[in-house]
Design brief:
Number of strands: 9
Shape: globular
Strand order of the largest sheet: 1-9-8-2-5
Helix content: 40-55%
Distance between the termini: 32 Å
Strand content: 5-15%
Number of helices: 11
Order of helices and strands: HHHHHEHEHEHEHEEEHEEH
Amino acid sequence: MDNIVPPLRWLWANAERRRRVWTYWIVDPLVGAYNTTLHYSMRLLSIDACSNLGAFLSFYSPFFYRESDARARRAWIKLRPEQSDPASVDAAIRRLWRCISRTMAEYSIIDQLWDAGRISVEGAQHLQAARAAEKPILIAMLHLGNWEVVAVTSIKLGFAGPGIYVPLDNRFDMRLAIKTRKRYSLTQQIPAGPHALRFALGTLRQKREPFGIFVDEFIRGRVHAPAFGRPPRAEGNIAYAARLAAMTHATLIPAYCVRLDDSARFKVHFLPPVELVQTGDRDADILANTGRVDAAIEPIIRKYLDQWYFLLDFEFDD
């Protein structure tokens, strides 16, 4: 139903169908035209000017996204009780909004960052060791700093491969995102879904190229990873990553980006591979390996909590 292009005759149908016609034929094109114009206008700016504009506009984010701001504050207080006084919380959430707003602005110039020397790297030897051992490589990425910089860095290091994306609701914004990623040579972009997992499995088994997947994601109303003390679940991308790596004997390498000094400068980290268990009990192994991946990423996200995009969506289970 959601993939159907709403015909104009729905203007005379029920309220839901009228809403879909209005969104698809009026709102989406207008928003898409605005975002496309803004995107290409910001490409005319320098890297710092573009990023700084995003930081400036972040002042308005808490007003437009009040519920997200409130969730981030609740999560911060619970995860950082030692910094839960009002002044510390305000400062942390301000840093978070500045980081996220910079990231959104930097999509306009993301293909320029590597050549401009804005990205440093730590841990590339883990990718090189996996390639030397002729093992498939699964890069488990996180939404930290400017998370797209991880893909840029992997490609520039010679580890180009496909990635999974979640389609945007606005088709014009989706086309713009695909074009933006093609600028830094991410040419294989697979929409999330059953087909994507089959494609990932085939890619890893044939050892053609690395495969990237974000293991912290917001889906069906829940941020599945990290667990942050919640009961472990073999659900979400983190479980898919653990399962794919076990099925293909891939080297699973967590990777993340941190923003340096509230600026358009970054450091990308590739962590040592996660050691997976294979006892023959598939369900138990998936749960155990999901826990191992979670144990590798949770300290990182706790450390850089004010740069984690999904702090805006994270809720502790009731």
